[in-house]
Amino acid sequence: MRADRLQNKEKFHSMVIRRAVLPGLCLAAFLCAGCNLSSTVLPDSEGGRVTSMESTPIVDYAVPKLVPNVLVDVAGYRSEGYKRAAVKGRRLPKTFDLVDAQTGEIVFTGALERGEYNAEQEMYSAYADFNEWKQEGSYYLECEYIGRSYTFVLEEGLYNRLFAEICQGLMTACREQTVTLEDINRILLAYEWYGEVFLDDNGDTIPDALEAVADWIEATGEQPVPEGQEATYAAVLAKFSYLYQKYDRQYATECLKRASVVFDQTQSTMQEDAESFHALVELYRATGLNTYGSQIEEYKTYFENHTGFAEADGYLYGAMTYINTRQPVDRELCRIFIDSIMEHGETISELYGELLHPVTPHNNGAPDLLRHAWELACANYVMNNYQYNHVMEEFLHYLRGRNALSVDFYAQETEETSRYLLILTQLLAVQENLKE
After folding, report:
1. What tens digit of pLDDT does each residue of 157-191 get?
2. Are 67 and 405 in contact (CB under 8 A)?
3. In Å, how far are 114, 116, 118, 370 from 360, measured between CA atoms?
4. In contact, 218 and 179? CB cutoff 8 Å
5. Which stretches of 245-365 are DSSP H helices?
6. DSSP assignment of 76-119
7. 390 neighbors 345 (Cβ within 8 angstroms)
8. Which pLDDT does position 65 carry in this prediction?
9. Which one-letter DSSP state was computed for residue 416?
10. In this structure, are strands 84-89 and 147-148 parallel, antiparallel, or unpaired?
11. Which of 41, 68, 225, 393 is deepest in the core (most CB within 10 A)?
């Protein structure tokens, strides 16, 4: 019996070992298959055949960008100026908090205003005004249910700093010969309108921006003018000559002669277009020659039949110079220009709420808005209007982040830098005038 039990026990151990080893051997064989797994076929539950998954899964998925629902100007606000943010969401609270970004302390609480509901977007929107808080610092806005904004600064000298940064960038582009003719034209226009805000850091009595343009002109003087840009180049030289004559009359005269030569070379092929009109007006103001004045009057029929300047910037540039020149002018043509500029300014001022709406904006993007802002700047220059100043500031806040996508268009649309210069120049000039 004892011998039988021992024999049975040995059989039992042998059977256990076989059951333990065989699955291990099978697993090892399976793992050694390696890359052949991609071609292994397995039976499905209905007796068919299915190919196994690839060793590396293909994932086609993009992580959506998270956009805050509290929209602010990421560049900041003037601490003493008008400060407003936009708020949107499926559900809105009644109040908002202004929070010190350094300490996390709530420094101001206000009520959301002008709330409305958009049924198509299924979205509420409102505005948060925090004009009462004037202390400089770094902050963010926070609302129950919908979260917080990006961090921004309150800084009294904000526009001065932004203006200096843009000016420096454009001056560098002038000296590196990467600036465009359009940029040069806008620099000169901003200086012509509000020269008092331009800096003279080297103390030679000539504004630095004007010296940078002079450097650009000197460097391009011996180069052929790109085909198709002759009229615009002549307009730029003539405007520069007019503005620079009080600093260096001889050099200004040389620039004006070159402007005349370049423009006269286009006479055989010249068409009545915006660029030619602009060049004619700048040359007429700088020289007073009747040959240019009579050619300007040939455009009168065109302007009588076109109530705006939407076709090209050159028409608006030329119109602004014409109504400001001291040379004899056609008064009826001046009236047409002024009426058109002011009418367009009023239209933009009335519609800006729709153009800049935080949920359903009616605009064609940053270039379209910048053009509207510059047209409004023209109307404001013709007749200073507090409402226009406010609307231009609203354009700036929208473009710097207070929009539905919370995008800083200045950082993304660098080719439009000179348009921002025009806006900031006027806002700075208004700010300085208010101090006096």
Report:
1. 999 999 999 999 999 999 999 999 999 999 999 99
2. yes
3. 15, 12, 8, 18
4. no
5. 249-264, 274-287, 290-297, 300-305, 313-324, 331-355
6. -B-TTS--EEEEEESS--SEEEEEETTT--EEEEEE-EEEEEET
7. no
8. 58
9. G
10. unpaired
11. 393
pLDDT digits (tens, 9 = 90+) for 196-209: 999 999 999 999 99
Residue 330 is encoded by which pair of tokens? 């056609």
Res 24: pLDDT: 45
Residue that the structure tokens 């802002």 belong to: 373
For residue 422, give the 3-state DSSP assignment: helix
Per DSSP, 140 falls in state: E
Which are the contacts of 400, defined by CB distance < 8 A and separation ≥ 6? 73, 74, 75, 408, 409, 410
Query: In angstroms, how far is CA 194 from the centroid of its own chain?
Result: 22
Looking at the whole model, is its pTM more than 0.85?
no
Q: Say how far apart CA 353 and CA 415 lie, in whole Å.
A: 26
- DSSP state string for 248-280: -HHHHHHHHHHHHHHHHTTTTT--SSHHHHHHH
Q: Is 118 within 8 Å of 359 (Cβ atoms)? A: yes
> 277 has which bridge partners?
none
Would you say how long the chain is, in residues?
Answer: 436
pLDDT digits (tens, 9 = 90+) for 105-149: 999 999 999 899 999 889 999 999 999 999 999 999 999 989 999
Specify whether the CB–CB gap between 262 and 248 falls below 8 A: no
Using CA atoms, how far apart are residues 185 and 321, in angstroms rounded to an integer? 12
- Count CA within 13 A, CB hemisphere, residue 276: 17
